[in-house]
Amino acid sequence: MPVRPANRLINETSPYLRQHSHNPVDWYPWCEEALQRAKVENKPILLSIGYSACHWCHVMEKESFEDKTTAQLMSQHFVCIKVDREERPDLDAVYMAAVQMMTGRGGWPMTVFLTPDRIPFYGGTYFPPEDRYGMPGFQKVLLAVSEAFQNRRAEIEQQGKAIVEEIDRRLDQQMPPGLITDDILDEAFSALHKGFDARYGGFGDAPKFPQPMVLEFLLRYSHRTGRSSPLEMVEITLQKMAYGGIYDQIGGGFHRYSVDEHWLAPHFEKMLYDNAQMASLYLHVFLMTGKPLYRRISVETLDYLLREMQHPESGFCSSQDADTDGEEGRYFLWTSTEIKAILEDRSADFCRYFDVSESGNFEGENILHWSGTETSAENHEMNGFFSEDRRQLADVREGRVKPNRDDKVLASWNGLMISALAEAGVALNRTDYLEAAIKTGNRLLKTMAISVEKDWYRIPHTLPTLSRRNENAENPVSFLEDYALAADGFLRLFEATGDPQWLDAAVKLVKTMNRFYTDPQGGYFTTAEDAEVLISRPKETMDNAVPSGNSVACEVLLRLAVLTGDHTYESSAAAYLRSLRLAMSRYPTAFGRLLCAADRFIGPIQELVIIGNREWPSTDELLQVARSQYRPNLMIVYWDKKVSLDIPLLEGRDCNEGEAVAFLCENGLCRMPTSDPQGLKDLFSNPLK
User: Which of 163, 302, 389, 552 has its CA 20 to 30 A from that of 131?
Assistant: First the structure.
């Protein structure tokens, strides 16, 4: 079949845009040329936003963008612009807010119609080619929108103006501030408990998303209060997901979400941000409970990411597609005939426990998921959980055509990966995890540094990989989340290694955040003050699939206050927390990461300084005690005396030659130092009152 001529997207670096480079649509990327053409020709803009791993984005492309008649209508009546939401979350946030106001819902693919001045006046998500699902066909929409723009221009402009005013009003909407006390955590837990699905885990009905930030808050809340019910909520959810179809039982890693309430049938894309957060969450629950299931899932997820998602030049790619050769989930599905041929005499048990049948459980094939009892699951966990059978199936699956991989290396998502790898590396004694975290951190440092003459970083001018694949690409763009999540990852690396370069890097990133992103009303804007001026300057306060940049920044500020002794960091974080006190308690599913920051702010905060050379056995023994339990509000500072490290927590502290020593403090009160690992365990077991 001959390849169609390429459009302008052929020159883009985004895999998502390049996927559309042979559509018969006269596509532009978001650029000044396209915006000016709309003004000169007085045409409305058709803005289409999606991402590479999105299944329904592929469906709409196949049905409409590859159809010559539809493409001709688009190109004739509109200036057509294609945007990768992972490259431009600022555009996505602004126009998603508009679509949600117009339709009451949002999602991808997103289709928005704009005036030549970029003002939205009509939009939606997926449009079918003909009338279907209660939605009008896309060709009908195109003609109706074009007719309205030509004949009812004044009405459209007034409608668009009202939408922009509402976006600005919501951005500026202020809730009364309040004190951050235990009450806010209690209220948030109560609200989450009411919405919890006690049978299958998670919150609400189908579709179900993992929501690791909310589950992390519940884990913290259980740790703080000693109550069993929040931990039970976390464990029910993580067990159901771990044994469900949302988890890849053969290769490890989580799919994006489940279309049903019991986690069986996923949309099959795998996202870096989901898997980094889920690996961290399962690790934390393992450290809290000691149960082998949680360790296994954390390790399998990280191993999957190292195996499938590492970029050849270091760092991690963004996603794997839901589709293979145009079929959703094809790579992940099995027939009973295949499994019987591979496992032979062992196939009967495997098929019984993993719900494999001739008729299948998903469009005639099988999504592997655990269908045995909880007791049988625990027994199999203790015996390797069909490890040899799963390995054999993995070897066979390796010969299949793999889903496409979006190889953008995004700083924010890689910040999440650095955090996950650094924590797991030291908690599980996996040097390969820690080495991968360091290698990824070094790549970000290399591409972030503006110049040797500057003492701060300016990512928008130096790190195209925040939003582009090619580090030499022009007009790189970055956002608050890139600074905040990278800084968070660097702080995790500092705790794991004691290397001061990571603390220095985090401080420099926060300085840049404060210089270019600060909102005088509190918190930070999504875009820098010198970024492209959009119809509204976005400010993300609520978590989405990725934690809010403001929530992560808040926690970073609190940790930097402890490490540096600069309490202006804590003051900024406290002001932001107080401004969202009511929102956190009323809408906890949208503020999971900020509730974690609130838990840290309320305290008690523990500071542990361990001094001792790396090669001394006593150094490692003390560090292992500190890292072997879930202690979310513990800040660990390790000082290898061969390394120059100048922070206030080290003042007046030292150790004897050959013997490491640990100094544990809590809320400004310090315990007697100890060189005995059991003595350090005792200090943790008997907190100050």
Answer: 163
Q: How many CB atoms lie within 10 A of CB 670?
A: 13
Nearest partner of 188 among 210, 216, 207, 209, judged by Cα: 216
Q: What is the SS3 assignment for 427?
A: helix
Element (H, E) at 634: strand 634-639
Q: Which of 204-208, 252-256, 282-286 has the lowest mean pLDDT?
A: 204-208
Say which amino acid occupies 620.
Answer: D
The CATH code belonging to domain 603-689 is 3.40.30.10
The three-class DSSP label of residue 579 is helix
Write the DSSP symbol of residue 403.
Answer: P
**DSSP letters for 490-547:** HHHHHHHH--HHHHHHHHHHHHHHHHHTB-TTSSB-SS-TTSPP-SS-----S--SSP
Same fold, 8-172 and 603-689: yes
Give how far Cα 578 sits from Cα of 184, 214, 453, 461, 538, Å.
Answer: 11, 19, 38, 33, 21
The helix/strand/coil state of 669 is: strand
Domain boundaries of the chain, sorted by first residue: 8-172, 200-405, 603-689
Q: How far apart are the first and last CA of the chain?
A: 75
What percentage of the chain exceeds 70 in pLDDT?
Answer: 94
Q: 435: helix, coil or strand?
A: helix
**Class level of CATH domain 8-172:** alpha beta
Looking at the chain, the number of H-run helices and the number of E-run strands are: 26, 16
Q: 334 near 340, Cβ under 8 Å? A: no
**HEC profile of 307-355:** HHHECCCCCECCEECCEECCEECHHHCECHHHHHHHHHHHHHHHHHHCC
Alpha-carbon distance 542 to 554, whole Å?
A: 13
Which residues fall within 8 angstroms of residue 393, CB to CB, at 6 or more apart? 250, 334, 339, 342, 343
Burial bucket for residue 346 (CB in 10 Å: 0-12, 13-18, 19+): middle
CB 213 within 8 A of CB 234: no
Question: Full-prediction pTM beyond 0.85?
Answer: yes
Q: Find where tokens 């700083």 sit.
A: 411
DSSP letter string, 185-203: HHHHHHHHHHTB-TTT-SB
Residues in the chain: 689
